[in-house]
Fold these 2 entries.
Entry 1:
Amino acid sequence: MKFPLDPQIDHDFNARESVASFDDEFGKLITLSDHAMATLPRQADLVFDPESGAALDLYGVEKGRPVFLWIHGGYWRIGSKEGNAFAAPGLVANDVAVAVMDYSLAPAASLEQIVHEVRSAVAWLHREGPALGLDTRKIHVGGSSAGGHLTGAVIAGGWHARYDLPEDIIGAALALSGIYDLEPLLSTQVNAWMDMDMGTVAALSPIRHIPEQSQTQLVLSVGGQERAGFLRETQQFHAAWAAKGHAVTQVEMADYNHFDITGTLADPQAKLVQATLNAIRACP
């Protein structure tokens, strides 16, 4: 770790210790994911980045449906598409196909590589989706925690031309409990495996790359039971996005923690599912 640990900042961003039992919370999400994989139509292990071998699973594909890409959390070092299938049922029940992706994990992969893979997944869906019957004029995205950061990296400006994508490709974006300015993490245990520096912060902090023009319909949320770092990051990103005149809605989830907030996506009537649907419908 190149930067000294700040105990207060580290506390503020320690998601695991914010709940009574991480194992219990994780187990609930695995149960939801197992049920989703067992009950939903699924096309598994579609490789979108041949160089890394990164793949995604597609749920609920039907002709003409829009597609929503879910990007998992886990502080960029743990997580899988199978363990995040819980993100699919709520939207699939509302006629939206859901792609749940893997990405290469830290520390073997740098954050630059991870961001590249997520952007590559967007490009693959845009390119290959029509042959599957999907409406990919807009790609809708979402993620939690590290996945919230990666969602922010997708709605950032300045990267689309390298992936042969239009600047307005992202429609709705659901960012939960995200980290939008990476600088505080330099002083936490997270940087022991991320090895970030101020160059990483400048290049890959979404709050520093908000486009001047955006048609993206952003939905933000953070659990009311989460630690202060995640609460601050959400409020700061909301303010910065709105300051550019872009569309943003924040959904209050006062009774939820860093983990069970994501599990609500399995419920077709959940607040976050309905807010995402409203954002998709509002896309030009």
Note: The longest helix spans residues 22-39.
Entry 2:
Amino acid sequence: MIVDELKLTRSYAFCRVWGSAEEHVLHVHDCLEIGVLLKHHLEYRFGDRTYKGKPGDVFLCRPFEPHWSFAEPNEPPYESILVLFMPSALKGMPDWNRLLLPFYTNEEVPPYIPGDSPYAGAICKAAEEAALAQEQQASNWMTRQYMHLIDILLQVSDFAASYAPSGVDQQRPAIRLDIMDAIGYLLQHYTEPVDGTVLLDRSHSGKTKFFHEFRALTGLSPNEFLNRLRVQHAMDLLRTTSSPIIDIAESSGFGSLSAFNKQFKQYTEASPREYRARMTSD
């Protein structure tokens, strides 16, 4: 597995891409990704799960989640649009943290939205219009893309709200909603000091139950989840600003430079300085 170094120059982008049947190494990256399949068929791999994609299907790639896509054997290269964005792109929007929940609750929503659903249809249309606006250099095309991004995320959110996981204990929905509220709180306040008692209060559960349900939804402990959000935020700042590293560590929510360096290297296998050098090189 490798860390894919996407050199995003702004907090969101729409990219038209083509893919072959060549096998690839599963890769991860820090940005959030939505893959919209336009032509031909592909396989989308998420760790040990494989989905067969057809035109119109939509795939959700969570940050730091191993994934890859490639065309079906003996078929022409597939065409798709990748919607790439960072959480910072949404700050300032009403309920922006709730739009991010489907990308951070791995076990609550599948990474696949079937093309015959109304949600996928609306996402596909918005993605094509956003890509076309850039290709034709339409007036205010970046603003148009942002409007399409919000529309797409609303569709993803509506799909997540409509999805009912099979085999889930029906006694758990209320608990899950409370844990989701705590996760939403972390998404909104991850750059600030976080009081664990606030999370417990929002979850309306005891400490043991909270930790169990949190890990069931996210695959991480609350502290791991918080550190990953902070590293993700720092990676974005290192790519797109010239701020001193110590300032980035502080603004990302780390209490010390040593803690920042340790957590950053755990996720990127590089120091913040090394990462910035790679991201800013021609």
Note: The beta strands are 2-3, 12-19, 27-28, 32-39, 42-46, 49-53, 58-61, 67-71, 78-85, 112-113.
